[in-house]
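In the design runs reported in the main text, the only information available to the sequence generator was the tokenized backbone. The following block is the verbatim input for one such run; it is reproduced so that readers can re-run the procedure and compare outputs position by position.
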């Protein structure tokens, strides 16, 4: 993540919930250097500080129905 940089936009905090197999994968292979674990109980909540672009959507699409964007 970081190839696309929209003009006149700033990075923002994105909050994502992961479940199932994606939970362990995201813990072991962070999506971005800004990734921070917010909560790690039955579900994994992480925050990313990135540009909200198609590139982010593409990276998240590999987790199929094991993720939900909360913000």
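Verbatim output:
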């Amino acid at each position: 993540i970081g190839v696309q940089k929209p003009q006149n936009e700033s990075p923002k905090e994105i909050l994502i919930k992961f479940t199932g197999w994606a939970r362990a994968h995201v813990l072991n292979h962070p999506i971005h250097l800004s990734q921070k674990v917010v909560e790690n109980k039955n579900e994994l909540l992480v925050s990313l500080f990135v540009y909200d672009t198609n590139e982010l959507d593409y990276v998240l699409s590999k987790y199929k129905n094991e993720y939900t964007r909360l913000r």
